[in-house]
Write a structure and sequence with these properties.
- This protein is mainly alpha-helical.
- The protein contains 19 helices and five strands.
- A three-stranded antiparallel beta sheet has the order 3-4-5, covered by helices on one side. It has a two-stranded antiparallel sheet with strand order 1-2.
- A hairpin with a 4-residue loop joins strand 1 and strand 2.
- Helix 11 packs parallel to helix 19.
Length: 518
Amino acid sequence: MSNSLPNPAENESQRAGGPRYPGSDSLPDPAESQSRCCSGRVRRWVFIVTALATLVVLFYTVENWRGKRAWEKYKREMQAKGELLDWRSCLPPRVPDEQNFIKTPFLDAVGYKDKVDANVWSPFSRLNFGGLLSAMGAVGSFWQQGKMSDLKAGQDYVRSSTNYTLPPLPQEPGADVLAVFRPVERELNEIRQASQRPYAQFVIEGDDPFTASIPNFVGVRILAQSFSVIASAELSLHQVEAAFQDTKVMLRFAAAMSEQPTLVSTMISVAITGLSLQAFWEGWASGQWCEAQLEEFQKIFAATDLPAAVHRSLRVGERGGVNYIVENYTGKRLATLFGGSSFKDRMFGWAARCAPRGWIYQNQLVYNRAMQDVVLANYDPEKRLVIPGELQNEAVERFVEGYGPFKYLVALAIPNFARAMQTTARNQTFVNAAALACALERHRRALGQYPETLQALVPRFMDKLPHDLIGGQPLHYRRTDDGKFLLYSIGGNGKDDGGVVASDWQQGDWIWHFPAKP
């Protein structure tokens, strides 16, 4: 055996990075060590990102499932109770065009928003009717002060204007006011003739509540105001039959608007019905309506149920419309629809775009509970009772107090239902009083005086007495020493103030007036 010396070439090879053998005490390669370290960090980050993505997917999946399950369970419960949560379920069947008051060439051309033919509407535009209304003041509400329409102010306005061609003075104020409408007499006569048709319906085209055809609210209001001013002018000239027919035209417009599924439409109906009472009251106060006309007015007023129409629009139209868009619109479109600058608007916009869809369903659930338990509780359709709105407002506030991801739709989509029902209750009370005024006048003409009590009207002059919408008791009535009567509701404060005229919803009573003394 030989003792060989180390090979200098082999040692040089190892120093130069050549092969190393087990047991070698040389240092590890830094590049290889760094590569292994980077690979480990990448694996850790991949694991973390994968885990986070899995958690996000799991979170969205669970929240989507929870939200949809909760909403569908509530929906089934409500449908089992007979509640209509689908907007399309509230659309009335279309009536035959030839029997529909609204289906005339003129109203077809100007009666629908965003479809107004400017050429057809131009004769009304040229009337400068707004100036006449402004000059006459609060058209439609004078009777609540016991006053006739201010036709003299209207005459002064048209005489001072260069827009009208008028005969020389002397001329009755009513005649000058009627002269304003001569350029549109053809269109007015078309509406008058169509008002004899049995149905009054604005046709709804389209399944989407936010793109479906809706009435031209401004145009309808102008037409109703025109007929109100015309009827007052006709009564001042003792053109009683013409005034009778024109007052009924207003009530036909109100009936058509009440069939619409939205709160805006039904509130227009409420306003037009209140407007019609001015002409009716003037004919009643001046004793110009004949027995047959009083009977027909009484029949129309007795069949009018404004709170039921408003309640229906909230119950089906408003609620169904919101349900439709939540279930059919994308998050981006929802955010655009309910967009705004407030904090809650921005939070809902963020949630609609980024949060789980289940959160939108949870918002829908809270909204529907608020509508069912609070908004719809402000009117009892079976007993025909209106509940004062302050308590409902407080209850809605409880739904949205504080911050939470499921409360934004309630804050954005609940309408001002309390104010709507307050106005409706007041106008319906006056409609009920108008029906009683017809029966009372018929009693006076038949028996020589007003009755001692309202019950004496039943059954000869009235089938059933209307009750006070506030509280449900009979309307207050008594004969007065001057041979007239005092008739009133206790009003929004829910207490009998002895016939003190209401100054607002919470003060005084709602009184049926006789003409004020000059």
